[in-house]
Amino acid sequence: MKIIIAGAYAIGIHLAKLLSRNNEDITLMDEDLDRLSHINDEYDLLTMEANPSSIEAMKEAGVEHADLYIGVTPDEALNLNCCIMAKALGAKKTVAKIDNPEFTDPKLQAFFDNLGVSSLIYPEMLAAIDINNGLKMSWVRQRWDVHDGALVMLVIKLREECEILNEPLKNICGPNDPFHIVAIKRQGETIIPGGNDELKLFDMAYFMTTKNYIPYIRTIVGKEHYADVKNVMVMGAGQTAVRAIKTMPNYMGVKIIEIDNQRCQELNNILDDNVLVINGDGRDVPLLIEEGIKNTQAFVALTGNAETNILACLTAKRLGVRKTVAMVENTDYVAMAENLDIGTIINRKTIAASRIYQMMLDADVMNVRFLDSANADVAEFIVQEGAKVTKHPVKDLGMPIGVTIGGLVRQGEGMLVSGNTQIMPGDSVMVFCHNINMKKIEKYFIS
């Protein structure tokens, strides 16, 4: 597949690195040579110093043969214009990163498609969804809904209260049990478990279950004492924070702390009256105590500085806040944040990259998610008539090592998968892949 990426900024560089592992034909285009220099020789891709809006440069990059053109510069208008031109010059699909939430209205999809923009990516909105999913369940590190929640993947840190430690998985999550463990993260290593593997103290366990069994999962992992989130304190007032606050459930009380006084005045105009805007530093302990941090169930740090966010979350934890969320854009800090027991980690560029990667697959894919913490991908495949996965029970499919089928949705009903499960055409199947190219897996789901 030939892919052209316009913009060697955070998302563009991260996406180029991720896609280069699939041996795709990738060209990363930017007019700033210094930004392009962040790509080193270990990645198999072509860099091109050129103005992304130059028709001549597009032609030189081979846009007429491009399967996917991606505009991810900080300039929304430039991204849209480049996609329109790329489509006119022959690109099959185009993707533009945008900043205007108005453009995400589903009613405008046909309008942009007619212009030549196949898909829009609004990272701040995608990140806001992840933030709010984390806040709705204070005891979960990450939640991922499959097929509108018919199946649910929960990522949970296991502590002393967990009832299912040190027991072979075949004894606790067999074919008739209401959950499966699709992966385990232990001391920096990801394990795709078999029946004889056991859960250990401080493991990060990836549970696949159905929505009605979430309370049961909460009980057996010993998280019933975690208070549900009713009061939230947010530090940082960028677009991600605003989108998250505007889409938080009505029952959550929100205070936002912002160090810039002018931005605070702007927030008072764009946020609802029930959101309290505080001018100050979210790392200031006396300020946090004064504003009721000890009666707050969740602290969300969304400044543009990863170190600041991590430090603020650690401060909040020391003051008794159990649920913390930190935006960590620098992937080098993600592992450090996890080791420091920061709860939910938000990385906008990996979220955006997941959504774009979905468009590369030939199979009918509802959703794809990169799980940086586990070095794994999760995808929701729609099974085609005559696909390989419909020929045999799951145990006889010969799936590569590192691949787990966690569950499926059939006619709107979620169900877990065992070795004897027979997958049917039209099923929506959740696949967990560790160190496996998703392109190698999709062939099982297409005819």
UniProtKB/TrEMBL annotation:
This is Trk system potassium uptake protein TrkA. Keywords: Ion transport, NAD, Potassium, Potassium transport, Transport. Signal peptide: none annotated. GO terms for cellular component: plasma membrane. SUPFAM superfamilies: NAD(P)-binding Rossmann-fold domains, TrkA C-terminal domain-like. One of its GO terms (molecular function) is potassium ion transmembrane transporter activity. The keyword Zinc-finger does not apply. Residues 1-118, 229-346 form the RCK N-terminal domain. Coiled coil: none annotated. The keyword Transport applies. Residues 141-223, 366-447 form the RCK C-terminal domain.
